[in-house]
Amino acid sequence: MRLTKKTFVRLSFFLAFAVLSAPPSLAQGKAGAGAEKDLGRFGDWQAQSFYEQKGKKTCVMWSLPIKSTGKYRKRGDIYMYVTHRPWLKKTNVVSFLAGYNYKKDSDARVLVGGAKFILFTDKDVAWARNSKQDKALVEAMRRGTTMTLDGLSARSTRTTDIYSLTGFSKAHDVINRACRVK
Questions:
Q1: Please, what sign has the CA dihedral across residues 164, 109, 67, 18?
Q2: SS3 of 159, please?
Q3: Spatial contact of 11 and 46, defined as CB atoms under 8 Å apart
Q4: Engineering a disulfide at 166: which of 43, 80, 94, 135 sits with its beta carbon 3.0 to 4.6 angstroms away?
Q5: Does the domain formed by 5-178 have CATH 2.60.40.1880?
Q6: How many CA atoms lie within 13 A of 109 on its CB side?
Q7: Quick check: 75 and 160 in contact, CB under 8 A?
Q8: Would you tell me how many other CB atoms lie within 10 Å of the CB of residue 122?
């Protein structure tokens, strides 16, 4: 996957929009520190940090799928994130933005190597069920080469997104250092 300037600008806008459209407790940035900091590009992964709530640092890494399949006519943006918010004691939070709303009460399935993870869905995002599952999924991604996400849209369209894990470990190390996560 090659990150073009257009895609980088689009994703930066999306991240800024996500922070600004979040509940007020998450959208209030440190005075003068509103912009995110680019921590680098590592293979197919981008790492960034930004400030929320009175200067509390958040670190995120993200990627786009290298391949997406499904019988859909239109689909929005598709991303996978790992987020650290150490000030909330939330690290390695895994989430997938599907580009559509998931079918109500459906699960998404992630495969990394021989490991299988079942995620819960809420609107257009799939999440690991708890911090233990987040940690196990991140550990599997650090060892893997590709990851597959299968989901079901609100219109019962089955989709499959394949992500490259090239650069994942390096990007993860960088956000760990930036947010002082062990």
A1: negative
A2: strand
A3: yes
A4: 43
A5: yes
A6: 9
A7: no
A8: 11
Q: Report the length, in residues, of the chain.
A: 182
Phi, psi of 96 (to 5 degrees): -125, 125
**Domain spans, the chain:** 5-178
User: Quick one: the chain helix, strand, coil %, rounded to 5?
Assistant: 25, 40, 35
The amino acid at 12 = S
Q: Which residue has the tokens 């943006």?
A: 77
* pLDDT tens series, the chain, 182 aa: 444 444 443 444 344 434 433 333 333 333 345 568 999 999 999 999 998 877 889 999 999 999 999 988 889 999 999 999 999 999 999 999 999 999 999 999 999 999 999 999 999 999 999 999 999 999 999 999 999 999 999 999 999 999 999 999 999 999 999 999 98
